[in-house]
Amino acid sequence: MRVGVLKGFLSRRYLGFWEAYLEALGVEVVRAEAAPDLRQPYCLPVQGLLAQVEALKGKVDYLLLPDLQAGVESEKGGGQCPWLLDLEAALLRYFPGLPPVLKVPAELSDRVLGRAGEVGQILTQNPMLVGRALDRVKSLLKPPPPFKSPPGSVGVVAQPYLLEDEAFRETVEEALRKVDLLPFFPDLPPEKLREEGDKLLPMDLPTDKELVGMVHYLHRLGRVKGFLLVVSYACPPIPGLLRRAARRLTKPHRLLTLGEDWTESLKALRAEMAAL
């Protein structure tokens, strides 16, 4: 039995537990290393996702996918983006021959054990093996700690799946360093950011709550003197959501698109921050 897993789209939050669990079940875990096809009319994270699925197709019996929104449905904000609302449905439209999907929570908690038991039964049909495997890995049901952030003055806000991508964080750091600035990434766990989001804008989807929560949290930090709001170019709902949140800002900010040249915008941001 072979199960394909994907890097990205919040995999840092859930994949460590699920890989260990699948291996405890005696299942082969298959990762795909594939370069994104930049000709695809989607944002870079989705291009990377599609490349991985393409590489796994025909090589695995099941595909493990995260439920990014914890079962919440909405037509507002990120709910207008099919990749954020229902990853499985979006992939099925793109890959009619997608392997059977095992959908799992994108975050870890004790509630994950129930779904893990169901997945184990699907894969092995052996309740005793499932029980032993769960006993071996349930200590891993701990959310990973937030990334440590450089001690910068520019608060960085982006969709959670971007902020948890180390390559994205390096890109932001490099861009800011060129204009003698340093980033400060949100350093609260997701549930705390969602609480912050509820204080700023009423949103339905967990990832949207996190996004606006970053704005609210960073804005009240004295060390943050300006904001860099980053969007993926092919996700029109997200820029609109960030513009709404940015109306509450009293500090200099720029809304920029991943993949474009940010140099002049960041120089202007630095000048506005220096004038405060």
Structure overview:
β7, α11 and β8 (253-257) form a beta-alpha-beta unit. It contains 12 helices and 8 strands. The relative contact order is 0.14. Strands 2-1-3-4 form a 4-stranded parallel beta sheet, with helices on both faces. It has a 4-stranded parallel beta sheet with strand order 6-5-7-8, with helices on both faces. The mean pLDDT is 92. The protein is an alpha/beta fold and 276 residues long. Helices cover 46% and strands 13% of the residues. It is globular and about 65 Å long. It folds into 2 domains: 2-140, 3-Layer(aba) Sandwich (Rossmann fold); 154-274, Rossmann fold (3-Layer(aba) Sandwich), CATH 3.40.50. The protein starts with a strand and ends with a helix. The protein has helices at residues 11-24, 44-56, 82-85, 87-94, 112-124, 127-137, 160-163, 166-177, 190-200, 206-219, 237-246, 263-274; strands at 2-5, 28-31, 62-67, 101-105, 154-157, 183-184, 226-231, 253-257. It comes from Thermus brockianus. This is DUF2229 domain-containing protein.
